[in-house]
Amino acid sequence: RSAGFGQRHRPNQAPTLAQLHGQCYDNSGDAELRVTAMLELGSPLEMIQLLQTPWEERFKICLSLVKLLFYLAHSPLGSIVLLDFQPRQFVMVDGNLKVTDMDDASTEELSCKEDNDCTLDFPTKSFPLKCSVVGKCEGINEKKNLFNAYRYFFTYLLPHSAPQALRPLLSDILNATGDLRYGINETLRAFEKVLHLYKSGLYLQKRPLLLKALVPSKTVEGEDYKCWPSYSHLGCLLSIHSPEEAAAICNSQLHCQSFIITQHRTWTGEFVHCDRVLACGAAAFLYSALSPQARIKMPSLFSSSGGCGHPEIP
């Protein structure tokens, strides 16, 4: 039995559902095609493009998906399963992931008489579940959604180019969702822990004070270089928590001689005092004076007219 969703079932507190702006009824055509719904406009999800975006944006998409699954597991209609769980069912709206096709959603949970009736099968794995006292397979809708999120999204978007200190936590999330040891509640808590560490900068390892002493020199145009992944294809535009992190990144890259801290904020900077900002490889040459023996070319914290492009940041 499929669940039908009108405007009252797309509340404001479920921002991961594409909003229903209106619907119209036409009684002059085919009886099965008389109702037309107008949904929020979004861009199709392109996984290949997403794999080329910075980790922070890919983590945002996975977090949006986890929040959606949390809502579906605890919806007023009961636990809802997405029967056709594919990336094509999702769109990007202002940088946020939203599900747009709910035609194949269902609140029906598999009936059972014993535990052997409750096997959740996927092409590469099977999971035995429990038969509840009311004759339903416990949590089957929630677990089916979660494993699909793991195999279609988490495995591709979470681990690659993640901050080194966060990789053990991300690996735990992948292993626990891949084995269905986590439910959606535990998965959301794990994602929120990663988000807290990332936003606060607590994941950063202590490094030498690379910004202890800097000596500015003249600006030179045309010195930008490209890195991957970057917010801009025109140069190296990265998200950083602090100037110290930017200095450490620049110091670790052979071609980086300087950088600019821009005024742009990424989505993780909306809720905390220690915002994550964007740093751009630029052409204002500065030198670190950590010691007379180690005068390493280091970044600038001053505004300059470097050529790195600044895209719209969601």
What is the secondary structure topology, with strand pairs?
Elements lengths: L19 E6 L9 E5 L3 E2 L2 H4 L4 H19 L7 E2 L7 E4 L2 E4 L5 E2 L12 E3 L4 E3 L11 H18 L9 H12 L5 H17 L13 E6 L17 E4 L2 H10 L6 E7 L11 E5 L2 E5 L8 E2 L16
Antiparallel strand pairs: 1-2, 3-5, 4-7, 5-6, 8-9, 10-14, 11-13, 12-13, 14-15
Organism: Zosterops lateralis melanops
Pfam family, one: PIP49_C
GO molecular function: non-membrane spanning protein tyrosine kinase activity
CATH hierarchy: architecture of the largest domain = Orthogonal Bundle
Report, as a whole number of angstroms, the end-to-end distance: 38 Å
Spans of at least 5 consecutive residues whose pLDDT stays below 50 are 1-13, 213-220, 270-275, 282-314
| CATH homology superfamily name of the largest domain | Transferase(Phosphotransferase) domain 1
The largest sheet is: 3 strands, antiparallel
Give average pLDDT, whole number: 75
Radius of gyration: 24 Å
